[in-house]
Specification:
By secondary structure, the protein is an alpha/beta fold. It has one domain: TIM Barrel (Alpha-Beta Barrel), CATH 3.20.20. The chain has twelve helices and eleven strands. The two termini are 34 Å apart.
Length: 331
């Protein structure tokens, strides 16, 4: 192992003044503030069951090489990230687990999200699949467990997930890619309401109606693809560039700040440490009403994967673990 890795891990092990990027288990008003190991001020959101979740985390979609995944997570931990979003279908849970074990950071300081793959979305298969995820992650519990796609036996899977939640093996359960109509039905017909609904959200796909329904049912909105996967010229968009220049920030920082001010959790993906720092450094400025009005004008509608498209549903049901979800806007 090279000296850089040793120094980084030693820093992480001895720098336990994270004061827990979150005050786990304690209710606070709407948001909490904490200082990361590198001095970035961060915020957290209180979920509908009282636990707190960082408002900014790291997505690791399509980082399939486990050594590379471990390196990325270790870099992110050093920078100050404590929320990590993986999935059974990403085939990289083991890389996350290896990084957390190597750095020695206390488990309670890290918020781990993983997602249930569609093959296991039945009442009788959830527990075994969850146990396998915990084994790969090298943890006894998961902070957030999501149904990844709105397919297969959703209600049966939810009953099994609810049992694991009651057994305190999961701190919160939720869903992913649920549109407003499906979310409302799900909330009205289950004992436990999802704590989180993870869906795409970015300046081109603003999902105002979905957020409205999330708020009505006290479901936190978590945004994947906040940068629209870099497509449609989002980083060269003149409106966003003007706002970024005004605040002496980057376009990426403006987008993330816009989401945070909407009380939407964001999980941008990057493998570069400098980008990690840049993305985390968004809690020292605010957008004004003019900025927000300009961003609102960028809405283009539902771009990317459409979960009401029969062809998409067929593709999702045929998809195998490790198969890319990023192709053609898929998540």
């Amino acid at each position: 192992m090279d000296n850089n890795k040793l120094n980084r891990r030693e820093f992480l092990k001895t720098s336990a003044q994270m004061a827990g990027i979150m005050a786990f288990g304690g209710l606070i008003s709407q948001q909490a503030f904490a200082e990361t190991a590198k001095g970035f001020k961060t915020e957290s959101l209180t979920l509908n069951n009282g636990i707190q979740m960082p408002m900014l985390g790291l997505g690791i979609l399509n980082i399939k090489d486990l050594k590379e995944c471990q390196r990325v997570i270790e870099d992110a931990l050093e920078v100050g990230y404590r929320l990590f979003d993986t999935a059974q279908s990403y085939a990289n849970e083991a890389g996350v687990g290896a990084a957390i074990k190597a750095t020695g950071i206390k488990r309670e300081e890290i918020f781990i999200t993983t997602k249930l793959f569609k093959d296991y979305a039945t009442e009788d298969k959830v527990k075994a699949a969850f146990d396998e995820s915990c084994k790969k992650l090298q943890v006894d519990y998961v902070d957030l467990f999501l149904i990844h796609q709105p397919i297969n036996d959703l209600y049966g899977a939810w009953r099994a997930m609810s049992l694991l939640y009651k057994q305190k093996r999961i701190r919160a359960i939720g869903v992913c890619n649920f549109y407003a109509d499906r979310l409302v039905d799900f909330c009205m017909n289950n004992e436990i309401i999802p704590a989180v609904n993870q869906c795409a959200c970015n300046p081109f796909r603003q999902e105002l109606e979905l957020q409205k329904q999330c708020e009505e049912y006290r479901v936190a909105y978590e945004a994947f693809s906040p940068f629209a996967q870099g497509k449609n010229g989002i980083f060269s968009n003149k409106t966003l560039q003007e706002i970024a220049k005004k605040h002496n920030k980057s376009v990426a920082q403006v987008i993330l700040r816009w989401l945070i001010e909407r009380k939407i959790v964001a999980i941008p993906k990057t493998t570069q440490k400098e980008r990690m720092r840049e993305n985390l450094n968004i809690f020292d400025f605010k957008l004004d009403s003019h900025d927000k009005a300009q961003i609102a004008s960028l809405e283009t509608g539902n771009v990317g994967l459409n979960h009401r498209d029969p062809a998409v549903i067929k593709w999702l049901n045929e998809r195998k673990i490790g198969e890319s979800l990023a192709t053609s806007g898929k998540k």
